[in-house]
Amino acid sequence: MANQNADLHGNAPDKSKLAIALIDVINDLEFPEGDQLLRFALPMAHRIRALCERARQADIPVIFVNDNFGRWRSDFNAQVDHCLHDDVRGKVLAEILQPEKDDYFVLKPKHSGFFSTSLDILLNYLGVRTLVLTGVAANICVLFTANDAYMRDLQLIVPADCVASNTQELNDYALAQMRQLLKADTRPSPELQFE
């Protein structure tokens, strides 16, 4: 696949009908329920990493869609650096899911990855028709992003083993909502085939 803008994007694909979005995985988890979420997020992170490795080998773009945590001057690299080098609860997640140089990133100010961000523009530019959503929390930011993706007529895949919430009950409920109302495919990530 030849890149349209090799000088801007290096080896990142410029066209792909499928993309993977990692929602709020670069996260210090320094909030009251952080330990509770980490318990479920840690096994999720290993599954997301395996999924992303397969996706990158198939030239499928990986997009980090991350909260700016109310810091309007923040940047994604600063967030990665904070999570990797400061003594924070979410350090282990950042170590497992470190972005690679050809990955994309979008900072979001609210729950949905689409609200007041460039995600829509990026997906249109890439030609994405199917969006794989992963990350935390399934019952909040993943669900809100899935809803907005559905309203944009994108096909949704939300691998059940690649999302986490503070409790298993909340996670299962969010997955059921996405499956039933948003027509999301929630099969486990090993069952996804990239062509």
Describe this structure in words.
By secondary structure, the chain is α/β, with parallel strands linked by helices. The chain is 41% helix and 15% strand. The protein has 7 helices and 6 strands; from the N terminus they run H-E-H-E-H-H-E-H-E-H-E-E-H. The protein has helices at residues 6-9, 34-57, 76-85, 91-96, 119-126, 138-151, 168-181, and strands at 18-23, 62-67, 104-108, 130-136, 155-157, 163-164. Strand 4 (130-136), helix 6 and strand 5 (155-157) form a beta-alpha-beta unit. Helix 6 packs parallel to helix 7. The model has no long low-confidence stretch (mean pLDDT 91).
Notable traits:
alpha/beta; Rossmann fold; globular; 195 residues
Short description:
With 195 residues, the chain is α/β, with parallel strands linked by helices. The protein is built from seven helices and six strands; from the N terminus they run H-E-H-E-H-H-E-H-E-H-E-E-H. Helix 6 (138-151) packs parallel to helix 7.
Rounded mean pLDDT is 91
| Coarse shape | globular
Order of helices and strands: HEHEHHEHEHEEH
Helix content: 40-55%
CATH-defined topology: Rossmann fold
> How many distinct domains?
1
Q: Structural class of the helix and strand makeup? A: alpha/beta
Largest sheet: 6 strands, parallel
Low-confidence stretches: none
Question: Judging by the overall fold, what is the CATH architecture?
Answer: 3-Layer(aba) Sandwich
Task: Count the E strands.
Answer: 6
Total DSSP helices: 7
Q: What separation lies between the terminal Cα atoms?
A: 13 Å
CATH homology superfamily name: Isochorismatase-like
Give the C-alpha Rg.
15 Å
Strand % is: 5-15%
The CATH first-level class comes to: Alpha Beta
